[in-house]
Amino acid sequence: PAPPALLPYVPRVPPAALPGKLTATTFALERPCCVFDRHANASDTVWLAVAFANASAAFRNPPSRADVPPYEQLPTAHSYMTLETAAATYACSASSPAVLRVGGDTLCGGQGGRDPCNGPLPSPGPYRVKFLVMGCHGPKAETRWSDPILLRRAGSPSTIDPAPVRHGSDVVVIASILASLGAVLAAAVLCATGAEAWGSLCHRDSGTGAFARRSYRTHHIPPALPQPLPPGCRCSPPGLGCFAPRPPGPCPAK
């Protein structure tokens, strides 16, 4: 059979900042839009070949779908193929997500139930990938290999120091100075507040004492003089007034 056409397209990780673009077991790829239109029919499929970077040169395109290297053989064969997709999905007129996720299927790895499997990648790599158009009679077109893709490395628990971080003597001195300045400032604020409150209290007490020392002299009111009894009133003790008529004549002397 004729060798597949080599397309100038190079797969790559999206340059924009994306959540989860590179993880310890997965990575994202730009979707190849308008790349296979001239080389694929409606019945053709597009595969993604994944290989360790140092084994990509030894990768051989499978002659048929039955010969596609599975995901489970990655540790021994150092390559596999996944993400089988209809070629029409990558057409210019197709509306589909702009990003592919490699290694995002956690349910197929090691179970042998799904084919092809897009299981998590077992190591940081680095990896290289390329797209391959497969028809009824084998490969029809392929892209170039990508640049090496290195995944994130998970930190080992043995590298974590459980002891607290020890600060240098300069840091301790600066911290002590700042603490002393804070204490002085707090004391100054308390003194100013206490002095203001004490002054207000003293002012209030002085006003009360001045009021207590004041004396007021009332006007002198002379005693009331006895008023003569009206005629016809009987004599009564002083201050009781007239309470009954009396007979004519002077009142007897008391």
UniProtKB/TrEMBL annotation:
Membrane-traversing stretches: none
Signal peptide: none
Cellular-component GO terms for this entry: membrane
Annotated InterPro entries: Uroplakin-3
Designated name of the protein: Uroplakin-3b
